[in-house]
Amino acid sequence: MTMKDEATKPEIRTIKTATSLRLSGKSILTHCIGCDAEGQVYLRVEANSAGGYFKPEWVSLAAIQKATENATYISAFHLRPVFTGKSTNSPGFMLAVLKAEGLVKLKDEKERTYVAIDAKDFLAGIKPLMEAQPDSGASTPVAAIKKGKKAAYLSHGLRRRVSFFRQRS
User: Can you tell me the distance from the alpha carbon of 117 to that of 38, in angstroms, rounded to the nearest whole number?
Assistant: First the structure.
């Protein structure tokens, strides 16, 4: 990234932090939703509870929608153009975030293909967070995923995973 690109980057305010399962279901991702002064929405993967490097860069929802608008289905491959880094995990992790936020859903029974869902419900849900003052405490604090996978899975209501952890304990 050049100095000029750095200077023109908008300041993004985090309005929500949440956790979600990776697409494999084997670990937890922490992701953030943010907005800039013009109301543009951004998404970012913040942390990963297991292995897998990624670049925690903000990606605009508009860029994601543009990259996937003509696709009959969506896979991590379709998200590669929106990332400036070379991490091969970032697109797949972002697809997991989109799934968790209700912006994509599985296409039929195929395991790795998704279809886009209208973003109006998602945008309506985050609108109050966008309108809140930055110091009002309306944004969600960053979740500490150091608590361990068991606590994270329980907080997601995925009790079926608990038996897996009991067997390993």
Answer: 24
